[in-house]
Amino acid sequence: MRILFDTNIFIHREDDKVISDNLQHLLQILSKMKAEILIHPISIQELKKDSNKERKAIVQSKVGSYNLLESPPEPSNDSDFLSKVKQNNDHDRIDNNILYAIYKNAVDFLLTEDKGIHKKAIDIGVNERVLLINDVLDIFKKEITVSKSMSPPAVKEDFVYNLNLDDPIFDTLKKDYSEFDSWFENISRKGRKCIVHHRSDNSIGALLIYKFEDEPIAGTPPLPKKKRLKLATLIVSNVGQKIGELFIKLSIDLAIKNRISELYLTHFVELDDRLEYLISEYGFRKVSTNKRGEDIFIKRMIVENQSRTNSSPVDIVREFYPSFYDGENVQKFIVPIQPDYHSRLFTDYPKRQTRIDEHQGEFIIEGNTIKKAYLSHSRILKIQSGDIVLFYRSDDFKQVTSIGVVESIHTRITDPDEIMRIVGKRTVYSRREIEEMAEKPTTIMLFYHIFHLPNPISYGNLKTIGALSGPPQSISGIEDESYREIIKRSGINERFTIH
Q1: Are 331 and 388 in contact (CB under 8 A)?
Q2: Are 463 and 334 in contact, with CB atoms under 8 Å apart?
Q3: Which end of the chain is less crowded, N or C, counting CB atoms within 10 A of the terminal residue's CB?
Q4: pLDDT in tens, 249-303
Q5: pLDDT tens, 32-86?
Q6: Are the C-beta atoms of 52 and 58 separated by less than 8 Å?
Q7: What is the homologous superfamily of the domain 152-300 according to CATH?
């Protein structure tokens, strides 16, 4: 496995011990895995221009032990690539050269803390392979014995008054909002709740403070009165994609439980704004601007304009998640999954055996996301993007428990590195498990997890309605009529289905 390091990961604020410690853990993991760490030659050229001699000397001493990427691909003649990325200055040229190495598959992954590169990675469709330090830790942490410092960070619901107002995560808010301290004191006294992620040094890595509203939103243009969930404060620092996605998922779950179909937040958008990229990926769209100059982003979960049903099934679920298209234009499949992998893939499944930290009010990050990856040795080739998948937990429950929408499908893969490249940030499998899977041709299904069925459908009922004729051994298609009966019996709120 080849991983390209951007030299910026070696440069930290002097007081940011957490990032430095995480990098040390990461290097230990990659060393054990015998991963090849590479530096792009253009990064060395850029480093030589650094006027800060002390910083330059430190970084040069760190990168000197790694090999250079030989004969890196050159983007200057690739008009298609250049049309997707901006190149207004020398800094853009350097970023584009680094990004082009991942675009042309010269390496498996790119590790960078550069916000601009992460934004461009989304634009060219390689964001699953462009990672933060914490993303890589999350993917590969199974490869070493987990020490206390590598334990999963806490994400839990708490009261605002238990937060440390002096935490550095609030510095920007205090600067942008002169009344922030008094607002914080006021909502604390009201007993407002929040969802908070603490890093290993107990500082706040991510935070959501929410509020239920039923009122118009002042702005240009104004928005009509409606029940909404306001994400009053949503901050996700450099703690990895999965935590940001988990916070979006928890917000959506909270809205659904309270019969709310719209979420919104206000935000001062900056250049290469990581929060804007995160929320845009899950359907938040700018619709207005308030008097402070903040953009107002709305996330709608119900398709009210039926003309949108002309969009592709994947576009619909991306824009209106958890709403999804399940009409006759998509196929339906039952996907058998063993209990162990089911528990890891769906850590929020209600009947799963819970861990002690969950009894303490914490959420498991791994597997508790919207986008997931499923691996199997199924030889089925007819699954397409937008198709519906119903996960059947075999052996113990013998029930269809969960429903998803296929984003993409990859078949007959036998190279473990290629599997890792495809699943990227979504994997719940260890490297060793992937290597064992790759001994036979492997099918990779990337999908959106929509819902767990309120009323799981048993094997007996699946036979009764004609969805199964015997215990499922591999992925199998079902008729639309059988699917309709499953949905009818499952108790899924059909407000979220489009057909």
Answers
A1: yes
A2: no
A3: C
A4: 999 999 999 999 999 999 998 887 888 988 999 999 999 999 999 999 999 999 8
A5: 888 899 999 999 888 888 888 887 787 788 787 889 999 999 999 999 999 999 8
A6: no
A7: Gcn5-related N-acetyltransferase (GNAT) (3.40.630.30)
Taking the C-alpha atoms of residue 343 and residue 354, their distance in angstroms, rounded to an integer, is 10
2-143 and 152-300 share one fold: no
- H helix or E strand, kind and range, residue 96: helix 90-103
341: Cβ contacts below 8 Å, ≥ 6 apart: 428
Low-confidence ranges of the chain (pLDDT < 70): 11-20, 141-154, 238-240, 305-309, 351-367
For the structural domain made of 2-143, what CATH number should be given? 3.40.50.1010
Write the CATH number of the domain with boundaries 329-498: 2.30.130.30
Token code pair at residue 53? 């001699």
Distance of alpha carbon 445 from alpha carbon 411, whole angstroms: 9
Would you say 205 and 237 are in contact if contact means Cβ atoms under 8 Å apart?
Answer: yes
Q: What CA–CA distance (Å, rounded) separates 362 from 364?
A: 7
Q: Where are the domains of the chain?
A: 2-143, 152-300, 329-498
